[in-house]
Amino acid sequence: MKKTKNNISNAWIMRPKPHGTDQMDYFLKKNRICIGYPVGQSLKGCNYNDLRRILIEEDLKNQKNGKSSKLINGLSNVNILVRDMKVGDIVVVPHGNDIYFANITSDYVYENVFDKDKLGSGFPHQREVEWLFDGKPLSRNELPTEIRESLQFPGTAANIKKHVDVLNNLLNGADSIQNNFELNNVQDNALKVAELILNAPGSTTDQRLKAAELILSYGKIK
Predict the structure, then answer these.
(1) Which residues, including other chains, have CB under 8 Å from residue 25's CB and lie 6 or more apart?
(2) What are 98's strand-pairing partners?
(3) pTM of the full predicted structure?
(4) What tens digit of pLDDT does each residue of 186-207 get?
């Protein structure tokens, strides 16, 4: 299992539905996080006012063409991914009850191929990431209360720097959580096999004794 990065200083929530479609598979396979807002150009080097102007101009152009367009409402999300996120920050990606963690490894990346206002595309603004825990999620129920409460925020992106201490403790101890989970699965499977041996008509006395000993050592039959 890949170890986590220790002592993070900033963290973000990023939902995996850029431009209205679930792209969690893309996030994991391409080692990227993305937002929507196709505007026909890269946003590299833009300051906050530049981003605001570009989104407004794109809205006006879309409206002239008869499209409903409110890209400006996503200014905060665009500013977070393009300008505020830094290499080394942690991003928390909720996907139902599965919560993924990644370390941001690049500056802003523009992917022209996805700069299209259509279903399944429209997410050209990206960052490269390294998924923690071999890309496996933690369960929402395993997370500290503070993190679960922050995940109730419905927006696309949000800063959760206030929880960096909680996240450091969680990520530094998550290997143990996962190892315990895997060990419990092995124990459960062993108990199921022992119960089958204990009740099987063809089992020898010695096999039944060993099965009973295993079951009693855990105090119950699954």
Answers:
(1) none
(2) 95, 139
(3) 0.75
(4) 556 666 676 777 777 777 877 7
